[in-house]
Amino acid sequence: MSEINEPQWSDFVESKSKRPNSERSNENKVASESSTDKKMPVAVKVPAPKELAAQKTSPSKTRITAGVTTPPKVAPSPPPAVPKPRTLGPIASSPIPPDRLAAIPIDGAFDREEPDQNGPRNRFLYFRLMPAWLVSTFVHVVILLVLALITIPSEVKTVNVLSAIGAGEDTPEMEEFQIEEIDSGDVDEIESLADQMVDTEQEIEMPEPTAMEALEVAPVPIPMGDLASEMAPVASSLKTLASGTSSPMGGRSGDTREKLLKKYGGNAASESAVGDALKWLSLHQMANGAWTFQHHLVCRNRCGDPGEAKRAGAINAATALGLLPFLGAGQTHMEGEYKERVRNALLFLAQNGKAGKIQGMPVLDLTEGPGNFYSHGLASIALCEAYAMTKDPALMLPAQASLNFIVYAQASDGGWRYFPKMAGDTSVTGWQIMALKSGHMGYLQVPPATIQGSIEFLDKVQGSNGATYGYMDRRVTEAHLPCTPIGLLCRMYTGWDKNHPGIVEGVKRLGNVGVQKNDIYYDYYAAQVLRHHGGAVWDKFNVELRDWLVETQSQKDGEKGSWYFPNSRSHRGPLEGGRLASTSFACMILEVYYRHMPLYAEAAALDDFPL
């Protein structure tokens, strides 16, 4: 199809300037006459009657067609000009052919009327004339704005909270303990945290808890499903425990408890202090079974000295420290005065961890930012002790899964610290070894390679042939004084006998240091080492520590049964855990006589870890 070019203004000016002057003058004359008669749609010069008569008699003929005058052939003369009027006349019913349209002259004085720029027709034409890329951009911007207004609710993690019900109501079914495979990307992210440090200065807002004073909570089982069979311990990896003492924790109740109490230095006053401590702890348990280092929120400020605000979110650690004294006194979720409180705490720990699978191994991650791996070690000890004491199948999977996470998180140096795979320190490592030992007492799986790795870590941080221990190396500092009794206790649990030179020298050094009244964390570990070893050093240390704790236990309203040591310098200990942590450690010290069967007594016959 041929393209029709629109006449350009420059072409018109050039053609007009080349016409003869006579033609332009005639055109101007016609234009001036046509301006006086605006009713005529086409400006044509009409001859007078006389001229018409003359033309009729003339042999030449004149023809007018569509407003264009054709002169006689015999005497050609310039045709009269047809100027374009300023206003458009009526539109002809028949369209003008394109070849005729191009021949119509355009008057330079013509002022074209501008169309309505705001009309809907022109707005549509503007849109049609826009470049394609601009239209595409406009459409995409509109789509993005619409999508921005659409909100999709994110998945909310449901936290199971224990509900208090009347004793006569039916027991509700609890959601099954679920184990899901952890994405490999999440595992890589966990491992990358080993090179980072946790920000422990961040304060965490705590909701105001309510006391559980007069509530009766119906027992709720924890169905574990078929996965429990996957966690059955391998018999070949464990040695058979002697039957003479029933279990390593069999001295926590009954006649055995009374005998051990008298034999190893306890008395009625220390037992009374334990009873008061358990009562104070029970009054500061939250309705969901947990404890908090911000205990003053539970009792509504009836007692002060809460833990540091930056530890407010360490709920698992606080719950474990609140629960362990009950277990140490023989209270379980199956029997005892506080069995309801123990049950609620165990349910909270089992449900508040992050359950999943890593490389096909079921794990329960109980770490938390403000408490990191301290929280996990403490909570794992509580779960494993409860299982070892009761053999309740419902506790088997969460206890074993918590041990599996410890196995997974062990660093290449054999220790543990704040995050999985992070180079170890003695303080955090001690809690993990205690958890593994508690699991071993309950016949749970403990890989020999994990224990061997922990021994290699102890070798790295020991000094004086195993009599002293540093924090991350061999250096012994006053700030990390508890590391020596921690290391010695771990050595006892990993196979060193009573006469090992490191044990003998270490016990002697602990006796020389004596009771540390400004470091209850040190006293907690030193009491266990000396009690297991026995002898004159233990007798002297015990009397001083026992009587001091009985004397310093608070008897004030609201605080009765608790302890608080404001000058404690403990690393990750009571200084940051407030009155709750101080009370927990002090109570467990007074339970040391029967909390664990003595390692080196002939009647106990407690075996070492499988290696």
From TrEMBL:
Protein name per the record: Squalene cyclase C-terminal domain-containing protein
Keyword Nucleotide-binding tagged: no
Provenance organism: Novipirellula aureliae
Xref: Gene3D superfamilies: 1.50.10.20
Region (Disordered): 1-81
Membrane spanning residue stretches: 131-152
Record bears the keyword Transport: no
Entries under SUPFAM superfamilies matching the protein: Terpenoid cyclases/Protein prenyltransferases
UniProt keyword terms in alphabetical order: Membrane, Transmembrane, Transmembrane helix
Biased composition (Basic and acidic residues): 13-27
